[in-house]
User: Which sequence fits this backbone?
């Protein structure tokens, strides 16, 4: 895989920021978009835009074909057994909320347990807090090891026959921990629970096979995997989705509407009330083609190398503390002694380097790490070892600057 | 090496307030207390003010955050101490305008605060600088 050639496909990366060539290290927040995705959305609006599933006219058919074609691409991308199991949503947050609202409220009662971890993104914590409050179920947490991983023994300890839902990230957006989903799914199922996987940081970087993992729900966002913002996916096993009520009601999702009662379309459309995110789905389809062309395994290999390289290099800087396990996804979360992460991020930005600073939507994890905030550099297939060198150089300059002004 | 861009933001006086904050701690006796945070980044401040006869007798703060938010809190408490509430609110308005990049023309003594003028060139950091002022305004309005 040639990251430098791939980089040419991302026009946004070819610019100067604050007088320096842009080094974009914030792909965990959102990825950049390659030319084929930008062109697919552009072409959709120039040539095919129409509403789906109702127009008898030609444009209506084209838009419907493109929209449903994108669903089939998603199905293959995650190896779902049927497109009935692929629901388009606004993103990961909406996908998780759909399950937490529809599935959880219908199936949870006082005494039941929902099991998550303290390292979840807010979007995989708050929906479960709300579901617990609404149903009287209890929220439980699989304990974290010192390096921010979890053990299967602890998972077996925490998940009991009272557990009805296990919800966990595929990859932690702060620590980069990659969770053993297949094994966790097995433990959940042995206890009669379902497992939802927050795949926001997984699907863009690691080959996903929902049947092999045997997860019951898998949620992810398009914008972190080269697609536009505003499109995401909820995968769910058909027999579960069939028994779930929609949470949004209106056009597009109905079968018959009477004065006092209505019936729903079949899967997946019963969960897609209102005019769907058509251009977003078209963009996601193009993004999946793009990722497949490079190859998910190649992307993963490239990122593994990059992650190893960044860990080696960043540790050579005195005063840098890195959080998370050794074996990690391609992101590094850190703090620089005596400099607040916002100040680190502003300083790096002045050298053209974009990193994230803050709590990364993980306040409970920040509490566990005993820090108010951290800085995070995250990588994707278009990043190179030179980007890592720039980061290290930028951090050394940041240290020098703040060392001098104090 | 020169850090021209950064030097406009991180003035010496700002870093001095960050490293040696003035009025850090809690007010003795009765005070009005305001907690405020910046949910997007996790900065937080607790501001305590003692107000008598419409005058800010004492102001202290505790908190956690970046150099801009903490130095701004330090400068703000220094500036409003001994001031009439109306003047403190006027200062807050002036400070907001300063963050929008406007030139400030006033008889009020802004002291070290003017060192924060450079923040207006860093839009992502304006909320850091205004956190303490927002806390002060909230406290006064609740009173």
Assistant:
């Amino acid at each position: 895989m040639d990251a430098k050639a791939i980089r040419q496909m991302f026009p946004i990366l070819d610019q100067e920021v604050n007088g320096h060539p842009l080094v974009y290290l914030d792909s965990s927040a959102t990825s950049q978009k390659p030319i084929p995705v930008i062109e697919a959305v552009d072409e959709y609006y120039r040539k095919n835009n129409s509403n789906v599933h109702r127009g008898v006219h030609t444009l209506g058919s084209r838009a419907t074909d493109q929209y449903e074609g994108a669903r089939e691409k998603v199905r293959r991308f995650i190896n779902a057994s049927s497109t009935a199991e692929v629901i388009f949503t606004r993103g990961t947050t909406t996908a998780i909320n759909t399950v937490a609202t529809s599935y959880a409220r219908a199936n949870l009662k006082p005494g039941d347990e929902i099991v998550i971890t303290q390292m979840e993104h807010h979007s995989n914590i708050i929906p479960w807090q709300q579901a617990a409050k609404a149903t009287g179920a209890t929220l439980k947490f699989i304990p974290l090891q010192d390096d921010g991983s979890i053990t299967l023994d602890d998972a077996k300890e925490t998940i009991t026959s009272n557990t009805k839902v296990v919800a966990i990230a595929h990859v932690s957006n702060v620590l980069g921990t990659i969770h053993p989903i297949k094994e966790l799914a097995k433990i959940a199922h042995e206890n009669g629970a379902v497992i939802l996987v927050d795949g926001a940081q997984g699907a863009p970087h690691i080959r996903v096979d929902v049947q092999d993992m045997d997860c019951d729900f898998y949620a992810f966002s398009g914008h972190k995997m080269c697609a536009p913002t505003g499109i995401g996916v909820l995968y769910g096993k058909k027999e579960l989705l069939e028994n779930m009520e929609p949470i949004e009601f209106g056009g597009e999702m109905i079968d018959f509407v009477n004065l006092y009662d209505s019936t729903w379309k079949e899967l997946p459309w019963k969960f897609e009330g209102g005019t769907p995110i058509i251009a977003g789905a078209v963009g996601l389809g193009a993004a999946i083609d793009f990722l497949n062309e490079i190859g998910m395994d190649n992307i993963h290999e490239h990122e593994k190398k990059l992650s190893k390289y960044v860990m080696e290099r960043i540790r050579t800087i005195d005063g840098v503390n890195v959080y998370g396990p050794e074996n990690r996804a391609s992101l590094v979360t850190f703090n620089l002694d005596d400099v607040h992460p916002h100040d680190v991020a502003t300083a790096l930005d002045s050298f053209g380097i974009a990193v994230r600073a803050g709590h990364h939507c993980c306040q409970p994890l920040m509490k566990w790490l005993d820090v108010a905030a951290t800085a995070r550099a995250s990588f994707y297939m278009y990043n190179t070892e030179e980007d890592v060198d720039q980061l290290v150089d930028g951090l050394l300059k940041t240290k020098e600057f703040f060392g001098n002004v104090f | 090496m020169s850090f021209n861009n950064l030097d406009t933001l991180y003035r010496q006086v700002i870093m001095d307030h960050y490293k040696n904050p003035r009025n850090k701690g809690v007010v003795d006796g009765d005070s009005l207390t305001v907690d405020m945070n910046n949910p997007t980044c996790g900065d937080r401040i607790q501001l305590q003010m003692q107000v008598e006869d419409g005058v800010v007798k004492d102001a202290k703060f505790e908190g956690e955050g970046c150099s801009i938010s903490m130095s701004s809190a330090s400068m703000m408490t220094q500036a409003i101490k001994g001031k009439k509430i109306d003047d403190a609110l006027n200062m807050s308005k002036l400070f907001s305008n300063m963050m929008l990049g406007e030139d400030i023309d006033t008889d009020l003594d802004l002291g070290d605060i003017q060192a924060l003028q450079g923040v207006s060139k860093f839009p992502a950091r304006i909320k850091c600088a205004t956190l303490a002022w927002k806390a002060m305004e909230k406290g006064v309005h609740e009173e």
Chain B has a mean pLDDT of 91.
